[in-house]
Amino acid sequence: MTATRGLEGVVATTSSISSIIDDTLTYVGYNIDDLAENASFEEVIYLLWHGQLPTAGQLNELKEQLAKDAAVPQEVLNQFKTFPINKVHPMAAIRTAVSSLGLFDEEADVMEKDANYRKAVRLQAKLPTLVTAFARIRKGLEPIAPKRDLGFAANFLYMLTGEEPKDIAVEAFNKALVLHADHELNASTFTARVCVATLSDVYSGVTAAIGALKGPLHGGANEQVMKMLTEIGSVENVDSYIHEKLNNKEKIMGFGHRVYRKGDPRAKHLREMSEKLTKLTGESHFYEMSTKIENIVTSEKGLPPNVDFYSASVYHSLGIDHDLFTPIFAVSRVSGWLAHILEQYENNRLIRPRADYTGPGMQTYVPVE
Ligand code: MLT
């Protein structure tokens, strides 16, 4: 399949993967290792949207804007109650809710630069509110409003549970957000760019991107990893389960990557975090299962784990419902989508690759008798 042959690449200044040399991932030239260890997610948002790290004043301003815009119109929250809420996947509900948000934004179709930036802030601010509200409403609980004095990562966990999270949980969640923020021209980002390159609006671009992220060959993979770990059940079962899959040439979720050659640099940060979190929970069997699977798949198939593999056990340790793993990917990746959307508008050209036609040659139409 040569679906992208002849495709004109887009210009992007956000993240880059140097797979030819050493599989380094950078955001605006900053190594992901440095950012994962030291940066807050809010700093990363600013970096991706402005092409530079913020000053203390700029960071505060962004945080205040995000706090101010976090509330979601009641109509959109009420909409969740009209869904078959315990049957739909949260990604489908969030995709629909983001589309609805556009209906309540008076600037939705205003295509000026400042208005587009304001919409970016609104969407980034509202996504955690949407995801956590959905998670609570389906359990019959009231949504919780964010706290002004908590950062982005802490607020997400607070809105989910109603309890102020421990420092180690905030560290893990912030790291996961930083690591998922942007990733070159991945499928959902490409989708967002194709959509807005028709000069469609920001809400349409993000709705389309959420649809692309939902699939198990993209963001949906972290939930599938958790399904696999749950199915395996114990460290003792890893050997037989994985070998059976490998012998049957079946895919092991969370391994390999289209772009990286040696390995996904994001995985090691999540592996470390996953290990650290065993102290918080006192439960280590998912972490131990994960490392055992990694040993087998890496040594026997030469496939290293990708970002989805250890994010699963990290989120599980934080007590998060398994079907929220992919929505959390969206809460982070929306920062990258928005950076690309703003960049696309800056110097827009329609993205319209050609299809490689492999159907029949010319035929003569004969009407049905
Ligand atoms: C991502 O972070 O988007 C995934 O690793 C998929 C990709 O980059 O193609």
TrEMBL record:
Entry's Gene Ontology cellular component terms: cytosol
Task: List, in alphabetical order, the GO biological process terms annotated in this UniProt record.
Answer: carbohydrate metabolic process; tricarboxylic acid cycle
Q: Which InterPro entries match?
A: 2-MeCitrate/Citrate_synth_II (IPR011278), Citrate_synth-like_lrg_a-sub (IPR016142), Citrate_synth-like_sm_a-sub (IPR016143), Citrate_synthase (IPR002020), Citrate_synthase_AS (IPR019810), Citrate_synthase_bac-typ (IPR024176), Citrate_synthase_sf (IPR036969)
Pathway(s) the chain acts in: Carbohydrate metabolism; tricarboxylic acid cycle; isocitrate from oxaloacetate: step 1/2
Q: Which PROSITE patterns match?
A: CITRATE_SYNTHASE
Q: Which domain of life is it from?
A: Bacteria
Q: What keywords is this UniProt entry annotated with?
A: Acyltransferase, Transferase, Tricarboxylic acid cycle
Q: What Pfam families does the annotation carry?
A: Citrate_synt
Q: Which NCBIfam families match?
A: cit_synth_II, PRK14034.1, PRK14035.1
The identity of this protein, by name, is Citrate synthase
